[in-house]
Every structure is written in structure tokens, then in C-alpha cells.
């Protein structure tokens, strides 16, 4: 298994743990319900998406009988996905407790990084799975 694939799976499990703890904290202290966005994105982009990326990078090329077209792009995607997610959630949270336009701007910028990482996965998977030139 490629290192970045393993890393995607490991961080997805960490995000599941974090989102579970945050969910319990939100139930315990209703004032934390303002963090619903953080909780849901830790689950969806953290746990679910990272697991899909890891399993997808490992399994889909094997199903197609082709090697992953751009392994270095997968590594880049690992970093951009995590930087985008952590940055987006960090600045979103800071903006809740200390509102300032810069925090909102930074949260959106990190969201753009997250979307870029999704585009990397999309491109890498299609480049791997779609038939190329016949030799």
C-alpha cells in the first residue's frame, strides 16, 4: 500500500474520533451547537472523504488493471485535503468566537484549497480509470 494511501486511512480514523468527541461535547453543552459546521465537516470531509480517497486510490486502479496514473498527485492531494480541511475549520471556529472579516476570508480560501484537492482526486482517478491510447 502506498504511504499516502495509508495516511489517508489513518487520518480518516482520527477525524472520526475528533468528530465523535465534538459531537458528545455538543450534546453535553448546548452552547457548542454553533460548531455544527465543524462537526459535520469533520465527519464528511474528514472521516468519509479521506477514507474514500484512501480506499479509492488503493482499490480502483487494481479493479481497472492499471497502475495509478499520478502517485505524486495523490501525495499532493493528501496534503491539500488536510490543509484545506483543518484551515477551513480552524478559521471558521475562530470567526465564531472572534468575528473578523479576515477569518471568514481565510476559511473560504481554505475551502478553495479543499475543492482543489477534490479536483486532484477527480482528475487522477479519471486519468487512471478511463481507457487511454491503445498501443
How would you characterize this protein structure?
The two termini are 28 Å apart. The longest helix has 29 residues, at 36-64. The chain has 135 residues and is an all-alpha fold. It contains 4 helices and no strands. It has helices spanning 3-28, 36-64, 71-97, 101-129. Helix content is 82%, strand content 0%.
Q: Roughly how many Å is the radius of gyration?
A: 17 Å
Helix content percent band: over 70%
- The helix/strand series, from N terminus to C terminus, equals HHHH
Return the structural class. Answer: mainly alpha
- Round the mean pLDDT to the nearest integer and report it: 96
How many strands, what sense, and barrel or not for the largest sheet? none
The total of helices stands at 4
Shape: elongated
Distance between the termini: 28 Å
Low-confidence stretches: none
Q: Classify the oligomer.
A: single chain
Tell how many strands the DSSP assignment holds: 0
Strand content: under 5%
Structure at a glance:
This protein is mainly α and 135 residues long. The protein contains four helices and no strands.
Write a concise keyword list for the protein shown above.
135 residues; mainly alpha; 82% helix; 0% strand
Amino acid at each position: 500500500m502506498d504511504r499516502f494511501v495509508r495516511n489517508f486511512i489513518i487520518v480518516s480514523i482520527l477525524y472520526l474520533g475528533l468528530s465523535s468527541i465534538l459531537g458528545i461535547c455538543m450534546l453535553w453543552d448546548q452552547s457548542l451547537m454553533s460548531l455544527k459546521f465543524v462537526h459535520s465537516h469533520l465527519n464528511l470531509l474528514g472521516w468519509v472523504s479521506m477514507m474514500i480517497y484512501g480506499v479509492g486510490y488503493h482499490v480502483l486502479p487494481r479493479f481497472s488493471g492499471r497502475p495509478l496514473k499520478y502517485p505524486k498527485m495523490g501525495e499532493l492531494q493528501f496534503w491539500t485535503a488536510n490543509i484545506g480541511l483543518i484551515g477551513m475549520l480552524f478559521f471558521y471556529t475562530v470567526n465564531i468566537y472572534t468575528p473578523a472579516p479576515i477569518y471568514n476570508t481565510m476559511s473560504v480560501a481554505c475551502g478553495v484549497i479543499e475543492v482543489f484537492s477534490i479536483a486532484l482526486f477527480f482528475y487522477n482517478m479519471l486519468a487512471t480509470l478511463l481507457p487511454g491510447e491503445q498501443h
